[in-house]
Write a structure and sequence with these properties.
The protein has 446 residues and is α/β, with parallel strands linked by helices. 48% of the residues lie in helices and 6% in strands. It has three domains: 25-122, no CATH class; 185-320, Glutathione S-transferase Yfyf (Class Pi), Chain A, domain 2 (Up-down Bundle), CATH 1.20.1050; 330-443, Rossmann fold. It is built from 25 helices and seven strands. Helix 3 packs antiparallel against helix 4 and helix 9 packs across helix 10 (159-169). The model has no long low-confidence stretch (mean pLDDT 96). It binds iron/sulfur cluster (2 copies).
């Protein structure tokens, strides 16, 4: 009860990078926490919130503790910059930015948004760690690596060089480093897309494919499969110039840069995307930024355009589900063989969208049966699980439900996860390969 405000208390107001007009300001969002403790879910009760508490069973690792510390310390009147407090940094450090609190907390305390906001203010007074800069700029590094992808991959995977790199940069030595594809998705599409599209009737439905940085560099084979699948289903694909999704900058709290990226994306894509030609994304964390963070980040002059664009942005599973519903294709194109699928949903997909479209599209082949693993967060959460001080917690989160469920799955069952980090975590934690839903559907085509 010592956290109660005195009578006449007035919460401070801050200049912020995100828009909080729907939440009564940054403090309004923090103060929405009513102490109910729903963020103390466990692997037995199910749900995702809050993975750091689930693994540690420590109150300081709950959303509630983070909200309480923020409320108390940001209200201090004796500091010129209340954001410059190491205790806030510390309590937010184990937040995986999974977004589960945005959807599962009864008051929708969006701690991932608050953490990113805090970090950008913190960096006004503190040096941005080199590791954070590297993670944020990973697509630039990957772009250079694509000059000699085989050499890059050798460095990333050879025992000695990989271990040296990880030690120097502060990554967990037990982690495997994501490797590069043989080509970029953009390059492949530049060579092949036109001829694929030409074979389609002129009135074929159209989508704009969002070439996120993960599908472009690391998972280009998956991106190619997504294009081939859409083409076989009779859907014309457009690829336009746009910047990266900004997810790596958002996850490190580099909101100034994230805002520039969000604005550029909205500017370039809002003129080509509409209800007849939606923007479709392969990696959930990248495409869902258009619906979640971008409208709150672009600034008041662009908020209308960002919101309108958000209405036409969807995951590839949402698009395919919709297309199947509208009879754009039917299940006669798919095998009648049996398959069992274990699905692990992506955290942001669960918080901002839903796993239901993924479940439905994986059931389009008539003898495929899909079971969702009640797994919450996988523990990787972008770069979180790569960082040496977070590795143990990351694996503990994975061990709560996901890893045992994957290990127990029959050897012929397909493990499916739409998120690139989740697939990496499943590989590192269980040694089993997980697939994106489009890979499963493409493999099921006759
Ligand atoms: S963060 Fe949400 S779930 Fe947790 S105590 Fe506060 S209101 Fe309840
Ligand atoms: S974003 Fe995830 S890890 Fe962070 S407080 Fe919310 S539920 Fe917990």
């Amino acid at each position: 009860s010592f956290l109660r405000y005195e009578a006449g208390h007035k919460s401070p107001e801050f200049d912020t990078f995100f828009d909080y007009s729907n939440e009564g300001g940054l403090m309004g969002l923090i103060e929405k926490c009513n102490g109910s403790g729903d963020c103390r879910k466990t692997e037995i009760t199910g749900g995702t919130m809050c993975p750091s508490y689930m693994a540690t069973r420590d109150e300081m690792a709950t959303t509630r503790a983070r909200a309480n510390v923020l409320r108390e310390l940001l209200s201090r009147k004796d500091l010129k910059n209340p954001f410059d407090q190491a205790d806030i940094y510390k309590v937010l450090d184990l937040c995986l930015s999974c977004k589960a609190c945005k959807s599962e907390c009864p008051s929708s305390v969006d701690m991932a948004k608050i953490k990113a906001e805090f970090l950008q203010h913190w960096y006004e007074h503190h040096r941005i760690p080199i590791r954070s800069l590297l993670i944020a700029n990973i697509s630039r590094i990957n772009s250079l690596g694509m000059l000699f992808p085989a050499l890059f991959n050798w460095f990333a995977t050879a025992k000695l060089t990989s271990s040296l790199l990880k030690r120097m940069l502060g990554f967990a030595t037990k982690r495997s480093i994501p490797t590069l594809g043989k080509t970029t998705l953009r390059k492949w599409a530049g060579r092949n897309l036109e001829s694929l599209n030409t074979a389609l009737p002129p009135d074929a439905p159209e989508v704009v494919l969002y070439v996120d940085e993960f599908s472009n560099y690391n998972d280009s084979a998956l991106g190619i499969t997504a294009i081939r699948l859409l083409n076989r289903l009779g859907i014309r694909i457009l690829i336009v110039k746009h910047p990266v999704s900004g997810r790596t900058y958002l996850s490190k709290g580099l909101l100034k840069k994230s805002r520039q990226i969000a604005r550029k994306n909205v500017e370039l894509l809002s003129s080509v995307v509409n209800s007849e030609r939606p923007l479709v994304g392969i990696e959930p964390s990248a495409i869902l930024g258009f619906r979640d963070e971008f409208p709150e980040l672009v600034g008041t002059d662009m908020i209308g355009r960002a919101k309108e664009l958000a209405e036409h942005c969807m995951t590839i599973e949402e698009y395919l589900d919709n297309a199947f519903e509208k009879h754009i294709f039917d299940n006669s194109l798919f095998t009648k063989e049996k398959a069992r699928i274990k699905l692990h949903g992506h955290c942001q997909q669960k918080a901002i969208a839903s796993t239901e479209p993924t479940m439905r599209i994986l059931s389009i082949p008539e003898n495929y049966s899909v079971q969702e693993i009640p797994s919450g967060c996988c523990g990787m959460a972008g770069s979180f699980g790569f960082e040496k001080e977070h590795y143990e917690l990351s694996m503990e989160v994975g061990e709560l439900v996901l890893f045992p469920a994957v290990r127990e799955a029959d050897t012929d069952a397909l493990v499916v996860a739409p998120g690139t980090s989740c697939r990496h975590q499943i590989g590192d934690g269980t040694g089993r390969q997980a697939f994106h839903p489009v890979e499963v559907l493409y493999g099921a085509l006759l």
